[in-house]
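User: For my dataset I need records formatted as: sequence, then structure tokens, nothing else. Please produce one.
Assistant:
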Amino acid sequence: ALGGDLIILDGGPKESFPRFLSELSGTVGLPTKITWNRDYEPFALQRDQELETLFQAQFGIEVETARDHLMIEPNELLKNDATSGSPFYQVFTPFKKKWLQIFESAEVKGRLIESAEGLNTQPRALARVLIDSKIREQSTRCLEEFLRDTALKVKIPIPAVGFQKALAQAHFFTQKKLVQYPTQRDLPAEKGTSQLSIYLKNGSFTVPQLLALLVRQPPSEAREKWMSQLIWREFYFHILAHFPYVETGCFHRKYDAIRWENREDWFERWKEGNTGFPIVDAGMRQLLNTGWMHNRVRMIVASFLTKDLLIDWRWGERYFMETLLDGDLAENNGGWQWAASTGCDPQPYFRIFNPALQQERFDPDLTYIRRWTEGQNKIVPLVDHAQQKVKALQLFKSIA
């Protein structure tokens, strides 16, 4: 509608960009500069470095990248004194303290002003680029195939997306719901969380934009608690950037030696929400039906898979990434390793969630459980929690 082109080429960056740029070279000419926003996942870092080399060396195009979805980037937050070890923080509390110090700097204050101004930006008409009809036909075919394949795979309703929807939800939460956040955020039956994670995942909104709205609210316990959650998000992105091996292995590498039982039949029962533990089953069924799960319940089901069923956290992490609409590698990996006691600043291995006690504390009236397990026949519990707790402790002690 604004006059811009969306070109979709299904071939990977290293194959598609040379094709596309060569086509432009023979028609409207090459761009003088290509820009993009930085990412921090191992694959993205490697891809972007390869493309920067390609654009500059093969086509003579200038490259410019910018900070985007993080308030403070990994290279900006280091220990003051790292003479005795790694310069990177591996525990959240000191990381948060340093993050808040940087947040008060003039540089970051300027970023907040820019983010606030960006919230009021209106779309501008774009100059149309005319490209070869062959490339356009290929792009149209790729889009049609993508939409057809997606329609076959998606079995759940997709929430409304985009910047305007994200902005409206962010305004609603910070102005109307934030005050209740400390008391409602752990209650899965309530809409006590921000419901913004999908917009952070898909790029409709960023943490700096959320912070630009948040600082407009007066200081309070609620503001501090929610800001802390945003800092946790950045913490896990920093961990992934500095310690990329966590993508496939334990942050504390000694735990790679754990011999998980990995019963596939138990894993299937967990995925289906048929374990006989109501709070676990409710969470897994919410995930199956909506592509989302309440954060407190995510911790409960992750602890249950690793500490009760003794299944490798990577199985659960992978399943979450396949099913969550808001699945982000850094956050998902960090959360699973926290629950499994294998990650940075983890839940100590000897603290194991009791599903029954979690249910009594966070869903005492069974409102959430009834919502997602209504009509389900009573299921005999898959395991005995007390017995499995003993086995889990032995499993970790054998490594420690």
